[in-house]
Write a structure and sequence with these properties.
CATH class: Mainly Alpha
Largest sheet: none
Number of domains: 1
Number of strands: 0
CATH superfamily: Fumarate reductase/succinate dehydrogenase, transmembrane subunit
Helix content: over 70%
Bound molecules: protoporphyrin IX containing FE
Order of helices and strands: HHHHH
Length: 131
């Protein structure tokens, strides 16, 4: 017989027996954290083209920013960063004992706010890209 849990309670939020909000929050946080670490290497690789001089750096940035795939990846990076920051702040509050009983609500709020910010950013990211 399947047992029902109250996902808003700290005792039940992290249970793994079913696909719970707490499990997704954990998976998304780890995933986004490690994607950010991966991006750091990409970021340093792109910045290091400046060692070959201003023209080389400008050329690299112009080429990358002209590619649709790069713009789409940038939207994805924003999504990953915004979610990690919002959910990370939520986790820090939880660590301080704030909102323990409403963890599912605060997780869904992080997701919705991330979605709204990402959707609002799309016109800016796609502006001027050559299709
Ligand atoms: C304002 C910005 C950020 C906040 C508030 C934040 C918050 C947090 C918190 C609270 C955790 C621990 C989650 C847990 O208890 O399991 C965490 C994990 C992590 N963060 Fe961040 N973080 C931020 C930025 C970053 C950045 C910029 C990176 C990468 C460059 C990053 C990479 C990671 C990784 C890889 C983990 C998971 C570590 C593990 O596997 O246990 N975070 N973050």
């Amino acid at each position: 017989m399947s047992q029902s849990y109250n996902r808003g309670l700290v005792e039940d939020f992290g249970r793994w027996r079913e696909f719970s909000a707490g499990m997704w929050a954990w998976v998304f946080h780890k995933f986004t954290g490690w994607v950010l670490v991966g991006y750091l290497f990409t970021h340093i690789a792109v910045l290091s083209t400046a060692l070959s001089g201003p023209a080389a750096y400008t050329g690299t940035i112009r080429t990358l920013e002209g590619l649709l795939v790069v713009r789409v990846l940038e939207v994805g990076l924003l999504a990953v960063a915004v979610f990690h920051i919002l959910n990370g702040c939520r986790l820090l509050l939880v660590d301080l004992g704030v909102g323990l009983e409403r963890q599912d609500v605060s997780f869904y709020a992080s997701l919705i706010l991330t979605g709204a910010i990402v959707v609002a950013s799309v016109p800016t990211f796609l502006a001027g890209v050559s299709l």
